[in-house]
Write a structure and sequence with these properties.
Elements: H1 3-30, H2 37-40, H3 47-62, E1 67-72, E2 78-84, E3 92-97, H4 104-107, H5 109-118, E4 122-127, H6 145-160, E5 165-171, H7 173-182, E6 190-196, H8 202-214, H9 221-232, H10 242-247, E7 253-258, H11 267-275, E8 280-285, H12 293-296, H13 298-310
Parallel strand pairs: 3-4, 3-5, 5-6, 6-7, 7-8
Antiparallel strand pairs: 1-2, 2-4
């Protein structure tokens, strides 16, 4: 073999090894369970503000008779949830889904309080696999979690009986999760869905973050990282699509997004809304960054969610 060909082959192999190493790095950063410093440090996510705004709701939660729940996932993980019964017996239950890198007892407590105090619902909050008190080495980005939420939905159904009326409400990754759940075979007791600042797909959101945070194009790193994710965590990024799942959805959906969301671009809600063929409503909250629509306009948020849910839950 000519020397030039050998040199070229060495260069190609070296580049390939570098790309593979970088792919494993991004898999570790994005999918492996650990503190997500890039989210905490991102100027597009007001983590400190979000935690500060949660403080009064956390104080409220401490006064409530919260029940700890445990459940085995289909693949053997011990999942953790929290149940708060309504102040008076009711068949109405909301299942709340938190965001990426979060946990139920922080990220969705404001919504728990809204449904419990304002709408008189039972509340079921869930720690996703790889989050909070739940087991799991890897983050499912809503795709693996959709099967877990099916089991939690059946728990809520069993808890209140066959006349149960169930609402799914998620924020950020949780918003995408409930949309991914919507494409599955749901029991008739699931009446409607509220999706707050969801991404269209894992491919889309990671492509956006690669460009935003690292100034890198998605190819070839994203396909290689997706392959690593399939081998290690069990799914390709291309599978995890809220956009594809919502096309199969048969439930009414309320889509909510802040106009100033730079972490999950606001344009994604328009694509999700267009893909949904059932009854749907869309609310854009002016001036709201990622995950902050409720805090920017509490009264308006409560009104729109309450009006929407009331159409389908008696």
């Amino acid at each position: 073999m000519p020397a030039a060909a050998i040199i070229l082959l060495c260069i190609v192999l070296s580049l390939l090894l570098i790309l593979i190493a970088i792919s494993f790095y991004f898999f570790s950063v994005g999918i492996v369970r650990k503190q997500k410093k890039y989210v905490v440090n991102s100027p597009d996510v007001a983590v400190d503000l979000f935690e500060e705004l949660a403080i009064p709701h956390l104080a409220w939660l401490e006064t409530q008779p919260l029940e700890d729940l445990e459940m085995k996932s289909h693949d053997g993980l011990l999942l953790h949830g929290y149940y708060l019964a309504a102040s008076a017996p009711t068949n109405k239950t909301v299942v709340l889904a938190h965001g990426y890198g979060g946990r139920a007892k922080r990220d969705v407590v404001s919504f728990a309080r809204m449904y419990h105090e304002r709408f008189d619902f039972n509340v079921l909050m869930v720690d996703d696999r790889g989050h909070g008190e739940s087991e799991g080495k890897y983050i499912g980005f809503g795709w693996l979690d959709r099967l877990d939420y099916l089991k939690w939905i059946h728990y809520a159904l069993q808890r209140t009986g066959q006349d149960a009326q169930i609402v799914l409400h998620g924020i950020s990754m949780g918003g995408a999760t409930v949309l991914m759940v919507s494409g599955e075979q749901l029991p008739e007791q699931v009446k409607c869905i509220v999706s707050d600042c969801a991404y269209t797909s894992v491919t889309d959101i990671l492509s956006h973050q690669l460009k935003s945070m690292y100034k890198l194009p998605p190819f070839p790193l994203l396909p290689l990282t997706s392959l690593v994710c399939k081998l290690r965590a069990g799914y390709f990024f291309g599978e995890a699509s809220a956009l594809q799942q919502v096309r199969k959805n048969t439930r009414p959906v309320l889509f909510i997004h802040g106009t100033d969301d730079m972490f999950v671009p606001t344009e994604m809600v328009h694509h999700l809304y267009e893909a949904c063929t059932t009854y749907k409503e869309k609310v854009l909250v002016p001036g709201a960054g990622h995950g902050l629509a409720y805090n920017v306009d509490k009264a308006g948020y409560r009104q729109r969610v309450g009006d929407f849910v009331q159409q389908f839950v008696s």
